[in-house]
Design brief:
The protein is an alpha/beta fold. The protein folds into four domains: 128 residues, Rossmann fold (3-Layer(aba) Sandwich); 171 residues, Rossmann fold (3-Layer(aba) Sandwich); 65 residues, Helicase, Ruva Protein, domain 3, CATH 1.10.8.60; 56 residues, Arc Repressor Mutant, subunit A (Orthogonal Bundle). The protein is built from 20 helices and 16 strands. β1, α2 and β2 form a beta-alpha-beta unit. α14 packs across α16. It starts with 10 loop residues before the first helix and ends with a helix. The N terminus is likely disordered.
């Protein structure tokens, strides 16, 4: 059946590779089994289809060598069956009666190669080695995918651990984030002071969504110079402007099938906002220097620490863009408003930095927790995290005390400013309540009396948790 002989040039390549031969000619299976074993393969043979099915079911076969003509059944039908049940199994078809139509059908149905009997040892050897390289490539890709998947899962768990807390406020935030993750095309706006964890919430939404296996592209809108904003977001063609030495994809294209996180969205220049709005609505962009539009499927999550209502009234932010971004709104309260979260965050970061810095995990004094709960944390969770890292580094004993933390006491001017800000918010709250009562809780008329838009009034009512009962509406 064979002519000539040959040894594998690289026996290590063949190690542990499992090959099954299905052919109803005993002489052929005996001869090819001997050849495969001499080459270092783990070989199995079957002279009927039923035995072949049993071996496939019980062994993790890498390669199937299959005859086209078998007793009572077509090898091409078996090929279809194999590719349906074992789609990653590679198949080499062999036959003594093959014609071009059979070859084409076999390859179309998933065979990786075709050999006509009789063939030489070197022919089957080359075919198997060629297939082995293909199998090894797929194994490398699978390993990389599994590694990336593991990294993604590790990252997800890390994000969730760092965004911990026991307050009802933070539990509400996480519940909203998980709800938003179920709708992979819905835009989300995250608001909150600097350091509250807006990007962490955005990542939780992404990694819990159907887009989790694709890119999460985080962009700080305030960190890009005005002259490069359009190029960075939409990409450009080589030579379209000075410095454009290569074609470049913008953030919208890079985020295809994934999530584009626009941090500090309120800092985006007003002249670019209209183009951003159009790209979000149409899911197409045009690179700088080109005229043909490019489709891209991305999800937008935006974040800001600014008062967008004020920026809209100052004509610094587009109301229509806000409406497009604000399908789901998640507000993260500052740490000083959820002091119940300080202790669990403290314990988590102490444990994390002690391990990272290879130091024993210290005890935490009661005075330490009480002191931190009385501190306003203008830098929020980010400030607490940095504060704990410093304390772990400088701690000399086995217990963290209040003296290990730099909790700056407010100066009189700072305290006075905070008091003024509180009074301003209290006055705004009272004005809204008075306007609603004056206009019998008609939102349009109340907004007109206050000199703001109805949308702005509704957002302020949500901010201050102002709810109007049915009895008040009917007065």
């Amino acid at each position: 059946m064979f002519s000539n002989s040959g040894k594998s040039e690289n026996p290590q390549l063949n190690a542990q590779m499992k090959v099954l031969v299905i052919d109803d000619e005993t002489n052929f299976t005996d001869e090819i089994e001997e050849f495969l074993q001499n080459q270092g393969y783990i070989s199995y043979t079957a002279n009927n289809v039923q035995k072949g099915r049993t071996i496939l079911k019980n062994q993790d076969i890498d390669l199937l060598i299959l005859d086209v003509r078998l007793k009572g059944v077509s090898g091409l039908d078996i090929l279809k069956e194999v590719k349906e049940n074992y789609p990653k199994l590679e198949v080499i078809i062999v036959s003594a009666h093959g014609d071009m139509e059979t070859v084409i059908t076999a390859l179309r149905n998933g065979a990786i190669d075709y050999l006509k009997k009789p063939f030489r040892h070197t022919d089957i050897q080359i075919a198997i080695q060629r297939t082995r390289k293909f199998i090894d490539l797929h194994r490398v890709i699978k390993t990389m995918e599994e590694k990336n998947s593991l990294i993604s899962r590790t990252l997800q768990e890390k994000i969730k651990r760092e965004f911990i807390g026991e307050s009802h406020q933070i539990k509400d935030v996480l519940e909203m984030a998980l709800t938003a993750s179920k709708y992979k095309d819905t835009s989300v706006l995250i608001t909150g002071e600097s350091g509250t964890g807006k990007e962490n919430i955005a990542r939780i939404i992404h990694y819990e969504s159907d887009r989790k296996d694709n890119v999460f592209c985080a962009v700080n809108s305030s960190a890009i110079t005005d002259s490069l904003l359009e190029s960075e977001f939409f990409g450009h063609k080589k030579g379209s402007f000075t410095g454009a030495i290569n074609d470049k994809k913008g953030f919208f294209e890079v985020s295809d099938q994934g999530t584009l996180f626009l941090d500090e969205i309120a800092d985006m220049p007003i002249n670019l906002q209209a183009k951003i709005l159009r790209a979000i609505e149409e899911k197409t962009i045009t690179r700088v220097g080109e005229t043909d539009p490019v489709s891209t499927d991305f999800r937008i999550i935006a974040a800001t620490n600014h008062d967008i209502d004020q920026l809209i009234e100052e004509k610094k932010f587009r109301l229509d863009l806000l409406h497009r971004l604000n399908t789901i709104h998640i507000h993260i309260p500052p740490l000083r408003e959820r002091i119940d979260d300080i202790e669990p965050l403290l314990r988590y970061f102490v444990s994390e930095f002690a391990r990272k810095l290879n130091k024993p995990i210290p005890q935490i004094g009661k005075d330490t927790i009480a002191n931190l709960k009385n501190y306003p944390f203008p830098g929020n969770v980010r400030e607490l995290r940095n504060m704990i890292e410093r304390a772990i580094i400088l701690c000399k004993g086995d217990t963290l005390t209040a003296n290990d933390f730099q909790t700056k006491i407010q100066s009189e001017p700072e305290a006075q400013r905070e008091k003024v800000n509180f009074n301003l918010e209290e006055n705004e709250l009272n004005l809204i309540r008075l306007a609603l009562k004056e206009k019998f809780y008609n939102q349009n008329k109340s907004a007109e009396l206050l000199g703001i838009t109805r949308d702005s009034l509704i957002r302020r009512m949500k901010k201050f948790s102002i709810q109007v009962s049915k009895s008040e509406k009917s007065k």
